[in-house]
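Hey, I'm writing a tutorial for new members on how sequence and structure tokens pair up, and I'd like a real worked example in the thread rather than a made-up one. If someone can provide the structure for the chain below, I'll link this post from the tutorial.
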Amino acid sequence: KMYMNSFQAFIANENLKLLQDKQVALTAIRNSYNKAFGLDNTSSHLYRVNVNNREEVIKRFKTLGIGTGIHYTPLHKQELYKQDVVLPQSEEDAKTTLSIPFNEKLTVSNVEHIISEVRNVIV
């Protein structure tokens, strides 16, 4: 629930006009990534891959101008929810998952460059 002011409403309305084009662009990028990496990601928000030596990959990509994102500790390991349960896949993914650039402003050249670099480090 949000009560927005006129300026916020204007920006939201202008962005909604671009939504279909954004979805088309994201689908094309996701399809390129999926084909290149042999994955079947379906998100329209993030594109995640798993890499070995995540911290080294982040540093390398930073020098190449490729932004990345990391993900948080699994819920069962967070202090508030901590339980004596072992979920090996979640725990491994927490160490290896990396988000790569995924937005509608990426050019074909950007996507090809990202694919080339990610292929070198993907698990």
